[in-house]
Amino acid sequence: MSANDRSLPRGRSYALLRYAPYVLMLVPGLVWAGNAIVARAAAAEVPPLGLAFWRWLLAALIVAPLALPHVRRDAHVMYNHWPMLILLSAIGIAFFNAALYIAAHTTTAINITMMQASLPVLVVLASYLIFGDTITPAQALGIALSLTGALMLITHGDLHVLTGLEFDVGDLWMLAACLLYALYTALLRLRPQVHPLSFLFATFLIGALLLSPFYVAETLHGHPMPLSANALLAIAYVAIFASAVGYFAFNRAVEVLGANTAGLSVYFVPVFGTILAVLLLGERPQIYHGIGIALIAAGVVLAARRSM
């Protein structure tokens, strides 16, 4: 058991997160399924840097009541590791999400989802280049199966759609976002050994502070954050679910399963997006839905087997 595990409360909710790796991987996929959709839907009204700034500031305030007792105990450890803390906050919190939201203003939802499908492969590459990590043939096959399943869902079962995709500057922003998050995922093993809530609060707050000058510049250049119901709902969703809930589960998944396996959480985004579309939007389930979800599930089980 790691120092981080010893610092966790012994409550039942934490026991679930400690001993159920599949739950850890499912939660980010569920809450992140709505992130790109919200960003794209709010693009006409909500400026990207404003959405990113308020997302992290509100998320820091949400976790603060639970985190502050641990922050007081962990402050000296975080201070001693401030360079890594700032680096992780910059690449995984501030600039990753800013790039994603900028991309949502200039490219399509399907292109954003397509680019996100590359994340697990990029995580494997980053882990190899930085730490020399390798993957087993079974893990490689699992990643390939999950990628194929994700593409089935994204293209609605017609992989020929891939040949007709058009890319523009927004896709370059999305590629930058994916590269930053892959680097964040690989480097999470070097984070300060503090309570998970201390780490969340610190990175959320630092991320908001790093974004603040860019947010001010965006506002001064004629793109202030509107105080409309749609804007407030978008901020609430990305702060509570995509941030506080999603990042807590994802960071713990990386600790329990390792970066290469936890990175497969991204493949659950189109799975839950499909399920929500059927349940909430009345879309009819198709054969390719079942094939895609089955391939993703089989791939994740195969890739995660060594980590269980």
Helix tally equals 14
Envelope shape? globular
Q: How many discrete domains?
A: 1
Q: Give the oligomeric state of the chains in this entry, treating copies of one chain as homo and distinct chains as hetero.
A: single chain
Mean pLDDT, all residues: 85
Helix content: over 70%
Order of helices and strands: HHHHHHHHHHHHHH
The major beta sheet can be summarized as:
none
Report the span from N to C terminus. Answer: 14 Å
**What is the gyration radius calculated from CA atoms?**
19 Å
* Helix-strand makeup class: mainly alpha
Number of strands: 0
Strand content: under 5%
pLDDT < 50 stretches: 1-10
Question: Please, could you describe this protein's structure?
Answer:
This protein has helices at residues 3-7, 12-19, 21-41, 48-80, 82-106, 109-116, 119-131, 137-154, 169-187, 196-220, 229-257, 259-262, 268-280, 287-304. The model is unreliable at 1-10 (pLDDT under 50). Helix 4 (48-80) runs parallel beside helix 11 (229-257), helix 6 runs parallel beside helix 9 (169-187) and helix 7 crosses helix 9. It is built from 14 helices and no strands. The two termini are 14 Å apart. It is globular, with a radius of gyration of 19 Å. The protein has 308 residues and is mostly helical. It has one domain. The longest helix is centred in the N-terminal third of the chain and has 33 residues, at 48-80.
